[in-house]
Write a structure and sequence with these properties.
Structural class of chain A: alpha/beta
Number of strands of chain A: 17
Number of domains of chain A: 2
Distance between the termini of chain B: 13 Å
Number of domains of chain B: 1
Strand content of chain A: 15-25%
CATH class of the largest domain in chain A: Alpha Beta
Oligomer: heterodimer
Strand order of the largest sheet of chain A: 10-9-11-12-13-16-17
Order of helices and strands of chain A: HEHEEEEHEHEEHEHEHEHEHHEHHHEEEE
Largest sheet of chain A: 7 strands, mixed
Number of helices of chain B: 13
Shape of chain B: globular
Radius of gyration of chain A: 21 Å
Order of helices and strands of chain B: HHHHHEHHHHHEHHH
Number of helices of chain A: 13
Shape of chain A: globular
Strand content of chain B: under 5%
Number of strands of chain B: 2
Strand order of the largest sheet of chain B: 1-2
Chain lengths: 410, 364
């Protein structure tokens, strides 16, 4: 609440200023001009709620990349502002705040790169707004495939995110069209014969759950059930009793920690479901283990994640990890490295552009090939996706996430 | 009026009968085949056992709703105010309980120490929510006693926001049990033993009824019975009923209405605190915005049972608990809120005064 109140008048002033600027721009026949020599990068991530552990280290990663570049690209000075797309009332990302952030960014002529979002649902809101103005958006964490890839996703996807016809949305993480198949393949390796799939009814959660269902069916793993959960319910005992009745080997939850993933694990234990639990990168964080209770989660929760956990990085990634720990005196969470990578990509795009112009920066990003990143060399494809295609498999042990191995699918 | 209401209840009875028949038919058709019982599979429940299992879950769930619903219904009964802050008061009770339990040692407690911590949590949390509710009545609602009814209603909504942000602040305090992030769900220590009584008693059945489930019912039921007896048989209870019926007349015969109203808030608040401790120990998760959902369910329970009616709130709470449990089972949890509110609409159409409410002209 307080946050919105504080932001309220500021947003109004920003909008009014922007309207003035835009008006002037239209009159003189050219776009709004920012301060010369200053390039602003903003990030829009949920900085409240239990995602904060993740997102704070993403912001740290972005800061680190910019500081390593000396805060400059060529003759441009880089300014960075971390924005929050969550509201206290929701305790997680909020679509009104996200839309406000996107509009605020397009209306600030200094902003040339928008790093975000964390949640795929938030990207759905921001991407078209930024696209209309040709502002480059780089996500360090979105995994819903429909944001970029042609295919049978939600109606109109991915075209609805590109109303201008140009590619403005890029991401540096592998998407769920890789995570889903990897989850199913890993489950099969673990000896799973049947699965009960649950999801939190959000873009990301339901999306990955549906891909996992399809992949399990392909592999002959029996899908015993597919249910959405009421994410605000106090407990899921009757749901878990139902699950117990179908006696699956695995319960898969497509969703995020903030939508009661921990309570699901608690009630699996309370009701006595013998199945293991598997979840996607949305629960790849300490907050999930805290919410579920380490005793309930240990040796039973299997979690997939795009890329390599920070601790297990090698080469340039290892340097990143060591520098991060030395600098911030804490472990980077899983997505921190992608925050760092996204900022590196942003700086590279600005370098390639060589001028303070949104279109040039956007084109600079689209042209990135064989980028020497933290997880190896990769390129952006025609959809704005990374060419990296591997996922890591992790298990909860002793109250910590433990890396098991890397997997990929063709 | 009277005639129409009679017709309504006859229709309701017919509808209920039909619903029961339909449910029965579903169970008969749904009897699981025993053929696909693989090795190592848990004991499959028979149709009747299965019904019983979901009924038990629903009763435990409903007990908490009932305790919160009582606070709504008592306040409404006496001053016709829908106290929207009540769900968030319940949340504050949960935070108090967690703080007490965590300060006593949290997860590491066992045996007598755990029992002591639980008793202390009940005492402190109940006193705390009772006190807060009492204070809010004194400061926020009493000055508006003779204002148009919309004013206290809006004040209640305002209080709800204040409570919620207090919870958010509390969650961010650097004290035991709160974890690292203010808005994150907090784990409430699992202090109750989980022994399956059905197995412990040697009953040959796959049913699960644990000591935890028993705890919920064994703590909630005496509170409800106690409240009913209190309202029926004590002087203050009698004064409450009188004030609810007609405040002016009650004052004429010498009842101090302000004191009676304050007592109502005190008791209603205390019940919310007790409900919060029970919920914390039973579900082991609390979060700053839990009051919204809990309050909504409890308010629905109060309306369903007949707002203003104490037995009605209890019945409504259990009814919603059981219905939501059955809905989770037969439909999917994503449909449960729709089922609950759909039922509310049906009840309000056929019996606007609620299941046990009395049709009273002057309170409409």
């Amino acid at each position: 609440m307080g946050r919105e109140l504080r932001r309220g008048p500021f947003g109004v002033i920003a909008l009014a200023a922007a309207a003035l600027l835009a008006g002037g721009g239209l009159g003189s026949g050219c776009g709004p001009k920012g301060r010369p020599g200053i390039v602003k990068i903003v990030s829009s991530l949920p900085m409240q709620g239990s995602s904060l552990g993740q997102t704070q280290t993403i912001v740290d990663g972005i800061r680190m990349a910019i500081e390593e570049a000396g805060g400059k690209v060529g003759s441009f000075t880089i300014e960075y502002e971390p924005w929050d797309d969550a509201s206290a009332q929701k305790g997680s990302w909020d679509e009104t705040v996200e839309a406000e952030n996107a509009r605020r960014a397009v209306n600030d002529p200094d902003v040339l790169v928008y790093i975000g979002t964390f949640n795929s649902g938030a990207a759905k809101v921001a991407a078209p707004i930024l696209n209309r103005e040709g502002l480059l958006m780089i996500s360090p964490a979105n995994t819903w495939p429909g944001l970029t890839k042609p295919g049978n996703w939600d109606p109109g996807e991915p075209g609805i995110y590109r109303p201008s016809g140009k590619l403005t949305y890029f991401r540096v993480v592998p998407a769920d069209d890789i995570q889903g198949p990897v989850s199913a393949a890993w489950a099969q390796e673990l000896g799973v014969k049947s699965v009960y799939i649950l999801h939190d009814q959000e873009t990301y959660g339901k999306g990955i759950a549906e891909i996992v269902r399809r992949e399990c069916e392909k592999r002959g793993i029996a899908v015993k059930g597919f249910d959405g959960i009421d994410k605000k319910a106090p407990e899921y005992r009757s749901l878990m009793t139902k699950v117990k009745g179908t006696d699956p080997d695995l319960v898969y939850f497509g969703g995020i920690t903030q939508n009661n993933a921990g309570q699901l694990v608690k009630d699996m234990v309370a009701v006595g479901v013998r199945a293991e639990f598997m979840g996607p990168d949305g629960v790849y964080e300490k907050a999930f283990i805290e919410a579920a209770g380490a005793a309930n989660a240990n040796n039973r929760c299997y979690i997939t994640f795009g890329g390599i956990p920070p601790k297990n990085l090698t080469g340039k990634g290892k340097v990143f990890y060591d520098t991060f720990v030395a600098k911030f005196k804490k472990e980077p969470e899983g997505y921190a490295v992608y925050g760092y990578e996204a900022a590196k990509v942003a700086l590279e795009a600005i370098r390639r552009a060589g001028k303070e112009e949104r279109e040039a920066v956007r084109a600079g990003c689209a042209g990135i090939r064989d980028f020497d990143g933290m997880l190896g060399k990769w390129s952006f494809d025609a959809n704005g996706d990374t060419s990296l295609k591997f996922m890591s498999c992790n298990i909860v042990k002793n109250g910590e996430l433990e890396f098991v191995k890397l997997m990929t699918v063709d | 009026m009277r005639l129409r209401s009679l017709g309504g209840s006859a229709r309701l009875r017919r509808a209920l009968g039909l619903a029961l028949l339909l449910t029965a038919a579903t169970f008969l058709l749904d009897t699981p085949a025993s053929a696909d019982q693989g090795p190592g599979a848990p004991v499959r429940l028979g149709a009747v056992e299965e019904l019983l299992q979901y009924l038990l879950i629903g009763i435990a769930r409903g007990a908490v709703f009932s305790l919160i619903a009582l606070g709504y219904t008592m306040v409404y009964g006496i001053i016709e105010l829908i106290n929207f802050a009540h769900g968030d008061l319940y949340m504050l009770g949960a935070f108090m309980a967690l703080s007490v339990v965590a300060c006593c040692g949290g997860e590491s407690l066992s045996g007598g120490a755990a029992a002591g911590a639980i008793a202390l949590a009940f005492l402190v949390s109940t006193a705390f929510t009772a006190g807060v509710n009492f204070g809010v009545e004194r400061l926020a609602y009493r000055p508006l006693r003779n204002a148009p009814p919309l004013a206290p209603l809006l004040t209640a909504i305002g209080m709800s926001f204040i409570f919620q942000n207090l919870g958010l602040f509390w969650g961010g305090l650097p004290i035991a049990g709160m974890g690292s992030q203010a808005a994150a769900p907090k784990s409430f220590p699992d202090l109750l033993p989980t022994v399956n009584l059905v197995q412990a008693l040697g009953i040959p059945s796959g049913l699960s009824f644990t000591t935890k489930d028993l705890f919920v019912i064994a703590t909630a039921a005496p509170l409800m019975v106690g409240l009913t007896l209190f309202v029926r048989f004590t002087r203050l209870g009698k004064a409450m009923r009188a004030t609810a019926q007609n405040r002016m007349a009650a004052q004429v015969v010498g009842i101090n209405a302000d004191r009676v109203i304050a007592a109502t808030f005190l008791i209603g608040g205390g019940l919310a605190g007790a409900g919060a401790v029970i919920n914390g120990l039973y579900n082991n998760t609390i979060v700053f915005d839990m009051g919204y959902n809990a309050g909504l369910m409890a308010f629905t329970a109060a309306v369903l049972g007949g707002i203003g009616s104490i037995p009605g709130a209890m019945l409504g709470g259990f009814f919603i608990g059981i219905v939501s449990s059955f809905s989770d089972w037969q439909l999917a949890t994503q449909w449960t809120p729709a089922v609950v509110f759909g039922l509310l609409i049906l009840v309000l159409i056929f019996r606007p005064q609620g299941l046990l409410g009395r049709e009273t002209g002057e309170k409409a």
